[in-house]
Design a protein that fits this description.
The complex is a heterodimer of chains A (317) and B (544).
Chain A (H helix, E strand, L loop, with lengths): L5 H17 L18 E6 L7 H18 L12 E6 L15 H13 L4 E4 L7 H7 L2 H5 L5 E2 L8 E4 L7 E4 L1 H4 L3 E5 L1 E5 L3 E3 L1 H4 L4 E2 L8 H12 L5 E10 L12 E10 L2 H11 L8 H8 L12 E6 L1
Parallel strand pairs in A: 1-13, 2-3, 2-7, 3-4, 7-11, 8-11
Antiparallel strand pairs in A: 1-12, 5-6, 6-10, 8-9, 11-12
Helix pairs in contact in A: 2-3, 8-10, 9-10
Chain B lengths: L8 H22 L14 H4 L2 H11 L9 H11 L2 H6 L1 H16 L15 H14 L10 H31 L2 E2 L2 E2 L1 H14 L11 H13 L7 H6 L1 H9 L5 E5 L9 H5 L22 H5 L5 E5 L16 H19 L22 H5 L7 H5 L5 E3 L12 E3 L12 H5 L10 H5 L5 E4 L5 H4 L6 H5 L7 E9 L5 E9 L9 H5 L8 E4 L23
Antiparallel strand pairs in B: 1-2, 3-4, 5-6, 7-10, 8-9
Helix pairs in contact in B: 1-6, 3-7, 7-12, 7-15, 8-9, 8-10
Classes of the chains: A alpha/beta (317), B mainly alpha (544).
Chain lengths: 317, 544
C-alpha cells in the first residue's frame, strides 16, 4: 500500500524533523489540505450541536463513519462485488460502549452496511477478546448491532490458529487466525484509547487481535507492533479509527465513565502510523512520545506526519 | 427366561430410567454460561428433589432453600410406593444397572443367587452415623449423595475426558487433513468439533484438579457391580438408606401366591435390590427398588404388587432388622468422626490455607461447609473454568468443595453464576453490584519473578487486565540500571489492597505459566473477619 519511494519518505521525514526542531509545530496545524484525487486519509469531525442523548450519539457515529469513508472515495474503492470481508473492531473487553473500551458499535455496523452496499458477499466480524469472548461481544453492543445487517459474528478459535512466518525484526512466527488472513478484504477498526503499557492503543495495536498468545508482546511493544504491522498492512484494505468516544485514562480496559471523552470524530486511512499519530494528538499526546508510532515511522510503515498525506478533512453536522 | 413383552413392567421402567438419565446428563451439559441470560433454576432440579441433601443441610446449617421442600414429594412417593426413586429415577442407579448387566454378560455362566445379606444394613448404620454428624454440624455425607457423586464425576472427569478426545482428535485430523481428492475427513470431524465447542464445552482445554481421586471412587463403585449387582445401592448409598427407612411399610406390597410358587428363585436372581430373604415369598420392602423384575421373571405368574393399608402386617413382609445397639454405636461413631475431622489447625481457625479462595458470595467457611455438597454445579458453569474441586486445601471436611485456582481461570468481574446455581445457597446469589464490593482474596507480587522487578523489562499485562475501573494495580515508574550500565525507566506494578477484589485475572494472564509473578491468596476475603491483615484506608467498619 505504501505509495512512496524511500527517497520521498526520507525527504518528508526530514521535513517533519526539521519542523519539529524549529519548534514551530506548524505542520500539525496546517489548514485542511485540498485533495483532488483519491485521499489517503480522511477525517470526519462533527461540528454541529453536541448530541444530547444516546440516540443522537448513535446517529452521529454512523454519519461520521459514512462521511469518512466517502472522503476516502467510498468503500467501493476497497470492497469489490463478491468479496469476503473481515471487519476487525476492538472487542477486547466486557465493557459497554459508553466506557469506550471497545470500538463503537455504530461505527462497526455502518461499515458492515457499506460493505454489503459495495457488493460484499459475506461480512465477518470478530476479534480475539481479552475478557471472556461471549460477554465481551454482547457488552460491546457490536454483536447486536451487526447481526441484523446480515454479518457473521464469529468467535476466534485458538485451537485452529496457523503458525505463520511473519519474518519481523523481533518476531519471526506468530499463531494467527486463518479465518482473518484468508478473507479477501480486511478492515481494521480500532478505537483510540489510553494504554498503560503502550502509551496508547490505536490502529497498530489493534492488530494484536488477529493473533493468539500475545502476552510476551508487552515486553517490547513498539518492536513487536512494528513487526506485526509490517505483516498486516499489505493485507489490510482500510483502517478506520473510531474517535467518537475515546478512553483517556485507565486503558485499555477502562470502566470509569469519567475517563471517557467525547471527540465526535472518525478517521479513515491507508496508513496505520498516520492514523495513530492523528489519534495520539486527539488524546493530547505528542506522537513522538509514543514508541510504536516512532518505531512504525522508522520501520517505514507510514508517516506520523499525517498532514503530508493526501488528506481530506470533512466537517459533519 | 423372562417374558419379552415391550409393555412389561421392566421395559417401562427402563424407558423411565433412560429418560431420567438423559435428563440428568442434559442438565449437566446445559449448565453453561450464557451472556445476559440467567441460568435456569431447572439446572439444580435433581439436587432440589433429593431428600438426603435437604435433611442433612437442615440438620447441619439449620437452614434450607425453600425450593428444597420439593424433596418432600420424593418422601411422599417413597412412603406410598417404596424405593421407586432408586429403581426408576436415580441416574446413578441406572448407571449401576448398566454396569451390572455388563458384568452379567461377561460372566454368563455364573448364576447369581443373591439374597439379602446382613451387610446391606451397613448403609443404614452409615446413614445414622452421618446424620449424627450432621446434627452436630458436619455436612460431610452430602459429598457421597448419589446424585452429587454422579454430577461431580460427570463434570470433573467424564466431560473433560470427552472434551480432550474431541478437541485433540479433531485438531490432529485438522492438521493432517487426510482424505481422497475433495473428500476430506475434516468434513466430518470439523462440524462435530464445532458443535461440541459451541454447545457442550465451556472453555477450551477444560480440566479439573484432583480428577483422579474422583474418577477412582466412581470406578470402584462401578467395578463392585462385578461382585454384587448394584453394590453401591445395596450396601453403601446413604440416600438409598434414607429412602429405605421411609419404605419400611409402603402401601405397595409384593404378594406371592404360595400355592403357585415353586420356589424356583428366578425372581431372586432377577432382583436388583436383593430384597428377597431366601428363595420364595419373603421380602424386605426397604430393600425393594420396585424394579418389577420379579413379577416379570416368574414363569407361573405367582407374583404381583398389590395395595395394602399401612397398618396391615403381612407375614411375608420382613422387618429391616436394625440393631439398636449398632445404631447407637454408629451415631457415636459419627460424632467421634466429626471430632476427629475438626481436630486440625484449619478447622480450629489457627491457620488458613493461603490458596483456599472461595467463590464470591461463599459464606464464612464453617457455614459454607455446612451447606456445600461439592456437587460441582458451580464448577461446571464457571465461565473461566477457574472453580476447581479442593483436594487438600480445605481439609478432609472440605473435600471437593469449590475453590478458585486463578492460574487455571479467574473470577470474571461481572459474573455471578456460581451463586445463582448453588442448590443449597452455600454460595449466596449476588447482584453484580454487590459482587463488585466483595473481596475473595488479595493479589501480591512476587518481586523476585515479576518481570519489571526481577529483570528490569516492561510487562504490565496484569495492570492491563485488572477489571476494577480505577485499577487495583497501578504502575510506578522507577529508574533502574540495566546490565550495560544504562539508566532506564521501568514501570513497576503495585497492588492497592483496598481496591483489589482478589479476582485473580492478574495471576491468570501473567506471562509466567508455571509460577506467576503475581499471585492471589485468601487474605482480606470479605467473608472472614479473622483473615484481615491489612487495615483499609477507608473507614474500618467496611469490613467488621
Amino acid at each position: 500500500m505504501c505509495k512512496y519511494s524511500r527517497r520521498q519518505f526520507m525527504a518528508r521525514s526530514a521535513a517533519t524533523a526539521g519542523a519539529v526542531a524549529l519548534g514551530t509545530n506548524r505542520l500539525f496545524a496546517q489548514s485542511p489540505a485540498v485533495v483532488a484525487g483519491p485521499a489517503e486519509m480522511a477525517i470526519a469531525k462533527w461540528t454541529g450541536v453536541a448530541p444530547a442523548d444516546a440516540a443522537a450519539v448513535r446517529k452521529m457515529a454512523a454519519e461520521l463513519t459514512r462521511k469518512a469513508i466517502e472522503g476516502m472515495g467510498g468503500l467501493g474503492r476497497f470492497v469489490k462485488r463478491g468479496d469476503v470481508v473481515w471487519v476487525k473492531p476492538n472487542i477486547g473487553w466486557d465493557r459497554t460502549p459508553e466506557l469506550a473500551a471497545n470500538t463503537n458499535p455504530d461505527v462497526v455496523a455502518t461499515l458492515v452496511r457499506m460493505c454489503f452496499d459495495a457488493g460484499a458477499k459475506t461480512v465477518k466480524v470478530g476479534d480475539n477478546s481479552c475478557d471472556l469472548p461471549a460477554p465481551s461481544y454482547n457488552s460491546s453492543g457490536i454483536a447486536d448491532a451487526v447481526k441484523p445487517l446480515g454479518a457473521e459474528v464469529l468467535f476466534l478459535d485458538t485451537k485452529r490458529v496457523r503458525e505463520t512466518a511473519i519474518k519481523g525484526e523481533m518476531v519471526k512466527t506468530l499463531l494467527m487466525f486463518p479465518e482473518i488472513l484468508d478473507c479477501d478484504v480486511l478492515i481494521n477498526v480500532p478505537i483510540a484509547k489510553h494504554h498503560g503499557r503502550a502509551g496508547l492503543t490505536l490502529a497498530m495495536k489493534n492488530y494484536m487481535g488477529v493473533m493468539d498468545d500475545r502476552k510476551p508482546f508487552h515486553q517490547a511493544i513498539p518492536e513487536c507492533l512494528a513487526d506485526l504491522t509490517r505483516f498486516m498492512k499489505p493485507r489490510t484494505a482500510l483502517c478506520v479509527l473510531d474517535c467518537v468516544r475515546i478512553l483517556n485514562d485507565h486503558g485499555p480496559k477502562g470502566g470509569d465513565p469519567a475517563d471517557v471523552l467525547m471527540k465526535n470524530t472518525v478517521a479513515a486511512g491507508l496508513d496505520p502510523v498516520a492514523l495513530d499519530a492523528f489519534g495520539a494528538e486527539l488524546l493530547g499526546r505528542n506522537p513522538q512520545e509514543i514508541g510504536s508510532i516512532v518505531k512504525g515511522q522508522e520501520a517505514e510503515l507510514g508517516t506520523m506526519n499525517y498532514r503530508s498525506l493526501p488528506l481530506r478533512e470533512i466537517a459533519v453536522s | 427366561m423372562s417374558k419379552r413383552r415391550i409393555l412389561s413392567g421392566p421395559w417401562i421402567r427402563r424407558a423411565v430410567q433412560l429418560a431420567f438419565l438423559v435428563a440428568f446428563f442434559a442438565l449437566v451439559v446445559l449448565a453453561r454460561p450464557r451472556p445476559e441470560t440467567d441460568p435456569s433454576p431447572l439446572l439444580k432440579s435433581f439436587f432440589l428433589i433429593d431428600p438426603l441433601i435437604a435433611l442433612v443441610t437442615w440438620l447441619a446449617a439449620h437452614a434450607l432453600p425453600a425450593a428444597a421442600l420439593v424433596s418432600l414429594a420424593v418422601v411422599a412417593i417413597t412412603l406410598l410406593l417404596g424405593r421407586v426413586f432408586c429403581g426408576w429415577v436415580c441416574p446413578l442407579g441406572t448407571v449401576h444397572d448398566v454396569a451390572g448387566r455388563f458384568f452379567d454378560g461377561w460372566r454368563r455362566n455364573r448364576k447369581r443367587r443373591e439374597h439379602w445379606s446382613r451387610w446391606q444394613l451397613a448403609k443404614y448404620y452409615v446413614l445414622i452415623a452421618f446424620l449424627a454428624m450432621a446434627a452436630l454440624g458436619g455436612h460431610w455425607i452430602a459429598i457421597f449423595d448419589p446424585l452429587v457423586l454422579l454430577y461431580r464425576t460427570t463434570t470433573v472427569t467424564l466431560l473433560p475426558a470427552v472434551q480432550w478426545a474431541v478437541e485433540d482428535g479433531s485438531t490432529a485430523v485438522y492438521r493432517a487433513d487426510p482424505g481422497v481428492g475433495p473428500v476430506r475427513l475434516t468434513m466430518v470431524t470439523e462440524p462435530v468439533y464445532r458443535f461440541m465447542r459451541d454447545h457442550v464445552f465451556v472453555i477450551p482445554d477444560q480440566a479439573f484438579l484432583g480428577a483422579g481421586l474422583i474418577v477412582a471412587v466412581f470406578a470402584l463403585t462401578l467395578l463392585a457391580n462385578g461382585y454384587r449387582r448394584r453394590f453401591w445401592c445395596r450396601y453403601l448409598c446413604p440416600l438409598g438408606a434414607l429412602l429405605g427407612l421411609f419404605s419400611w411399610r409402603p402401601l405397595l406390597r409384593r404378594k406371592t401366591d404360595q400355592d403357585v410358587c415353586n420356589q424356583c428363585d428366578l425372581c431372586g436372581m432377577a432382583c436388583h435390590g436383593a430384597a428377597a430373604v431366601a428363595a420364595g415369598i419373603e421380602w424386605k420392602p426397604a430393600e425393594c427398588l420396585g424394579c418389577l423384575n420379579c413379577t416379570d421373571s416368574c414363569h407361573r405368574d405367582a407374583l404381583g404388587f398389590r395395595l395394602a393399608m399401612p397398618w396391615r402386617r403381612e407375614p411375608t413382609t420382613r422387618r429391616l432388622g436394625l440393631s439398636r445397639r449398632a445404631a447407637i454405636g454408629a451415631a457415636v461413631g459419627g460424632a467421634v468422626g466429626l471430632a476427629l475431622m475438626r481436630a486440625n489447625p484449619q478447622s480450629r481457625r489457627s491457620t488458613y490455607h493461603p490458596r483456599l479462595i472461595r467463590p464470591p458470595g461463599a459464606r464464612p467457611e464453617r457455614d459454607f461447609l455446612q451447606r456445600c455438597t461439592a456437587c460441582g454445579l458451580c464448577m461446571k458453569i464457571c465461565p473461566t473454568g477457574g472453580l476447581q474441586p479442593a483436594v487438600t486445601e480445605a481439609g478432609l471436611e472440605g473435600l471437593w468443595t469449590p475453590r478458585l485456582a486463578p492460574q487455571i481461570g479467574y473470577c470474571d468481574y461481572n459474573c455471578t453464576l456460581c451463586g445463582q446455581v448453588c442448590p443449597t445457597q452455600a454460595i449466596e446469589a449476588l447482584t453484580v453490584d454487590a459482587k463488585h464490593e466483595i473481596k475473595i482474596g488479595l493479589a501480591c507480587f512476587d518481586k523476585s519473578r515479576c518481570i519489571p522487578y526481577a529483570y528490569a523489562r516492561d510487562c504490565i499485562v496484569c495492570e492491563e487486565h485488572c477489571p476494577v475501573p480505577d485499577k487495583a494495580i497501578y504502575v510506578v515508574n522507577v529508574e533502574v540500571v540495566d546490565h550495560d550500565g544504562n539508566r532506564k525507566t521501568i514501570g513497576q506494578p503495585q497492588v492497592d489492597p483496598d481496591r483489589c477484589t482478589g479476582c485473580g485475572i492478574c495471576e491468570n494472564v501473567c506471562p509466567y505459566k508455571e509460577h506467576p509473578g503475581i499471585r492471589v491468596f485468601s487474605a482480606s476475603e470479605t467473608r472472614n473477619p479473622d483473615n484481615q491483615p491489612i487495615l483499609p484506608e477507608s473507614p474500618w467498619d467496611d469490613i467488621y
